[in-house]
Design a protein that fits this description.
Elements: H1 14-25, H2 36-44, E1 54-58, H3 62-71, E2 76-81, E3 93-95, E4 107-113, H4 122-132, E5 133-144, H5 149-156, H6 196-204, E6 208-214, E7 223-225, E8 231-233, H7 237-246, E9 254-261
Parallel strand pairs: 1-2, 1-4, 2-3, 4-5
Antiparallel strand pairs: 5-9, 6-9, 7-8
């Protein structure tokens, strides 16, 4: 869907968007996870005061850059990533560390899609994004929900959580999760997973206020590609999607937040250049 200010309230063709996302994913090094978050982005845009002219996709790849560029044809979409494998020749791009980046330009919209859970210092990501925003700019965040309905049930029975992984090789301690056979690149390195309430509280420390909140699921009726050619099959995808849509935001599998810059982030705030053990 090509979005303009006049068409932002138009009906979204869900099937067409999912087909296009699958096409954007083709040939990439990593998959585009949680495709429903892109559909929620289209709805979140209705809460913005104007169409963004400059967009920064932090941790994005060729596929996400292609989708955002097609969806926002009047915007310049720049990718910031530390890995050349993710770019596949996409331009414009910036090479940098998501936990500590500085940009010459200020951006009207910054995307933090499925990123916070992968970094050691998510405060650095949020602080860097806040510093790179133009006055009144927006940050769009999607990330797994530590307090989703499944985790609450699993933890009550002493089972490992579905989106926080102490081991990046095995899904251990929960027989309901897919076996990986000890293959690296299937288990995500999720180490910084927030609850809905905790994430809202943390972003407030960096001059951001929530203007739109939603929650998505990770269930899709298709094999789920992780890194390279590694696949696993998501269990009960149809059921998960239907259940997720009925739950309150704080219980859904993923957290979606559109945040507006309403305050300032002090230079260096939230940035950690070495281990906390060295402080």
């Amino acid at each position: 869907m090509k979005m303009t200010w006049d068409t932002r309230n138009a009906r979204v063709d869900t099937d067409a968007e999912l087909v296009f996302l699958a096409d954007c994913e083709t040939g990439g090094h990593t998959h585009i996870s949680a495709k429903k978050r892109f559909l929620q982005f289209l709805r979140a845009m209705r809460s913005m005061h104007a169409m963004p002219k400059k967009v920064l996709d932090v941790g994005g790849n060729k596929g996400t850059g292609r989708w955002f560029s097609a969806t926002l044809p009047s915007s310049t979409v720049t990718i910031l990533n530390a890995s050349p494998k993710e770019l596949h020749g996409y331009k414009p791009f910036l090479k940098g560390d998501a936990s500590d980046f500085k940009t010459k330009d200020k951006f009207d919209l910054i995307i933090l899609g499925e990123l916070l859970e992968h970094v050691y210092n998510p405060d650095g990501v949020i602080a860097s994004a806040s510093r790179a925003l133009a006055p009144g700019g927006y940050v769009y965040i999607t990330t797994p929900n530590l307090a989703c309905i499944y985790n609450r049930v699993f933890l009550a029975f002493g089972l490992s959580l579905m989106n926080y992984f102490p081991s990046i090789r095995y899904r251990a301690g929960n027989r309901f999760l897919e076996d990986t056979n000890g293959v690296f690149g299937i288990v995500p390195d999720h180490k910084s997973v927030f609850t809905y309430g905790a994430l809202r509280e943390v972003i407030g420390h960096y001059g951001l206020s929530v203007v739109y909140a939603d929650g998505y699921d990770y269930g899709r009726k298709e094999p789920f590609r992780t890194v390279g050619d590694r696949y696993y099959k998501i269990p009960a995808s149809g059921f998960r999607s239907r259940l997720n849509d009925m739950l309150p935001v704080g219980l859904r599998e993923g957290i979606t937040l559109l945040c507006k810059k309403t305050g300032e982030c002090k230079p260096g705030e939230g940035i950690l250049t070495h281990s906390v053990w060295d402080l």
